[in-house]
Amino acid sequence: MRRPFMGNNGAAAAACVLVVVVVTAAAAADDVQTLGGGGNNGSSAAAGGGGRDCDMFQGRWAVDESYPLYDTSRCPFVPDVFDCRRNGRPDAAYLKLRWTPAACRLPRFDGVEFLRRWRGKTVLFVGDSLSMNQWVSLACMLHAAVPAAARVSFTSGKPVSSVRFEDYDVSVVLYYSKFLVDVVDGGTGRRVLMLDSMRDASAWLGADMLVFNTWHWWTYRGASQMWDYMQEGNQTYRDMDRLAAFSKGLSTWARWVDDNIDASRTKVFFQGISPSHYDTSSASKEQEGDVATASASAAADGAGCYRHTRPLQEATSTDDGGGILPEQVVVRGVLGSMATPVSLLDITPLSQLRIDAHPSVYGGPGRDGMDCTHWCIAGLPDAWNQIMYAMLQKS
């Protein structure tokens, strides 16, 4: 018998606050101030337009006055750091952009259809705060679709947060994990990043859809680095090439998926590389832990994502803009080696255009500096979920 998703053995439950909310229909008005699948390479996915296969990650951003898909002020799950409009962002053009693939069209997101299809099931996002970005987006998209007076419960905590649509028996869950592999106490206060260990992963069994993500935290150094040593087997390292470490950790995750996930019962996605938009000097300072200096410098110079209100360009380039990122190469290589089919959400090219979609200086009270890593909600992550929805329609 398949065991149900139980989170982290209940450890997070004591730290969580359960809020039951009665929701109302969130019809988006123009003046509301909110907002390839198949195989293991994500190279193609079916969408509208006669069921043709196409690359849904190449295309253009088009103005759509019916957007955003939901009113963020009516979605109770959005953390302050993503709620750019509530934090004073004055422009709204970034909310009115719809992703349009070059060779097909995306089906309109139907939240009620999604909930009916996944009735009695658990959708689990596992990853860092960029997974949180996508999780919150999907929760808000579904929240806006349910009828008035629907019963929805919200549990907030770490590592587990959950939105449960009681009338459909559907849970949309986030399990917060920076690396997917373990970080353990190595004694004397040393934190050890275990490149070949995934003890927390038992908490992920039982989910019906898994959406994984990791990369962002692998690059950090200095005060922002979340480990003191790396370990693989009996070998301990002060440091190593970060792409090599990422490849080792991701390969451990891939083996776990192959050994533990039944693809006939569980759909698996990997959220691709979400780009940041810091200038080179600011990005270097941020990764070294000097976030405040990097953010202040970028804001003063008008660098990074500060004051950007339009995409860098309208459409993606068919030549990959000069080549894919090295971390994308790692992801594609690891996924391509797996026996279990994993659908890659290759979000990099469409997200690279959206320098306008970050919180920038509108990251909320108590947050210093500028955020050119995460994304405003509503906003870009809604397009990621629309593509995921289209890929699920195909399957």
From TrEMBL:
Q: Where in the cell is it found?
A: Golgi apparatus membrane
Q: Name one GO molecular function term.
A: xylan O-acetyltransferase activity
GO cellular component annotations of the record: Golgi membrane
- List each copy of the Trichome birefringence-like N-terminal domain by range: 53-104
Answer whether the UniProt record assigns the keyword Transmembrane to this protein. Answer: yes
User: What topology in the membrane does the UniProt record assign?
Assistant: Single-pass type II membrane protein
Known InterPro entries for this protein?
Answer: TBL, TBL_C, TBL_N
Query: Is the keyword Disulfide bond in the record?
Result: yes
Its keywords, alphabetically, are: Disulfide bond, Glycoprotein, Golgi apparatus, Membrane, Signal, Signal-anchor, Transferase, Transmembrane, Transmembrane helix
Leader sequence residues: 1-29
Trichome birefringence-like C-terminal domain: from which residue to which, for each copy? 106-391
- Where are the annotated coiled coils located? none
Query: Which protein family is named in the record?
Result: Belongs to the PC-esterase family. TBL subfamily.
Q: What is this protein called?
A: Trichome birefringence-like N-terminal domain-containing protein
The organism encoding this protein is Zizania palustris
